[in-house]
Design goal:
Shape: elongated
Number of helices: 10
Structural class: alpha+beta
Order of helices and strands: HEEHHHHHEHHEHEH
Number of domains: 2
Strand order of the largest sheet: 4-3-5
Strand content: 5-15%
Number of strands: 5
Largest sheet: 3 strands, antiparallel
Distance between the termini: 30 Å
Length: about 280
């Protein structure tokens, strides 16, 4: 997970909401309000409101005066709608409720990222000695390239049926063609991933694949995001460029990613244990 610039995130959130509807109440809970550049019947229009209108536009006609006039027009119509009592319109209320749910979801996502960065990722430190120890311990898999085929299934029950067919003797390639169609990469057969080096294989699968022998088929594996892959190792070869000098940086990054992912899962699990969670 990468740190998300909060300014971009907040701009995206409020761009999704009715940008013409300017809040009459001054912000009091943190960030200093931006400069007021116009007022409509006392309602402030700020530089940030204009920035939202200008964000992402490339047309030469989208000048600041043009966009400010657009905001003023929208504010006039917004205020008029309130005078007419149109805020009670069911369709309008449904749309506002949708925006509020989107905002709540974005706030959860922003806070999740902040907690992740400050309470988990920032606390993980990988030393050069950690890297050297890992290289020495996993020398064979790091210096080997693996040629394997893959069948990716989204449903666990379907994955169990696919594995059962393969175990009963049905050709792996034939099953891959049935499940994945005729799609292939760079002219290879369906499911054929070609040769991949250690750092190109997700940590979720690397230990399983590296322990397999050519011709062997894995069980049903699980991916942290989603899906149930089944692998078949076809062949292996040495990677002459995988010496410690070339791999130390890669190992540092991968080892840190792995440690951060593990720490994150444990952090969430601890929160879950202390929380009262009800599903209906």
């Amino acid at each position: 997970m990468k740190r998300i610039p909060f300014l971009c995130l907040i701009c995206f959130v409020f761009a999704a909401i009715a940008v013409g509807c300017t809040a009459k109440k001054e912000a009091t809970d943190g960030a200093k309000p931006s400069k007021v550049i116009a007022k409509v019947n006392g309602a402030a229009i700020r530089e940030d409101d204009l920035a939202l209108r200008l964000h992402g536009t490339r047309s030469s006609t989208n000048t600041k005066p043009d966009r400010l006039d657009d905001i003023i027009k929208d504010e006039l119509l917004y205020q008029q709608g309130l005078k007419l009592g149109l805020e009670k319109d069911p369709e309008y209320q449904a749309q506002v409720a949708k925006f509020e749910r989107q905002l709540a979801d974005m706030k959860r996502s922003a806070m999740r990222q902040l907690v992740y960065n400050s309470q988990v990722a920032s606390k993980i430190n990988i030393t050069n000695q950690d890297v050297k120890n890992y290289y020495d311990k996993n020398l064979i898999q790091i210096t080997t390239e693996y040629h394997f085929a893959l069948i990716w299934i989204n449903n666990k029950e379907q994955a169990e049926g696919v594995l059962k067919k393969i175990r009963s003797g049905v050709d792996f390639e034939a099953v891959a063609r049935t499940v994945m169609g005729e799609k292939a990469t760079a002219g290879r057969k369906p499911g054929d991933m070609g040769f991949l080096s250690w750092e190109q294989i997700p940590f979720d699968f690397v230990d399983t694949i590296c322990k397999m022998k050519p011709g062997e088929v894995s069980g049903i594996l699980t991916f942290r995001q989603s899906g149930y892959p089944i692998f078949k190792l076809l062949e292996v070869r040495k990677n002459p460029k995988a010496d410690f000098e070339n791999m130390s940086g890669v190992i540092m990054n991968r080892l840190r990613d792995k440690k951060v992912a593990e720490a994150y899962e444990q952090y969430v699990e601890n929160l879950r244990k202390d929380a009262k969670i009800e599903k209906f």
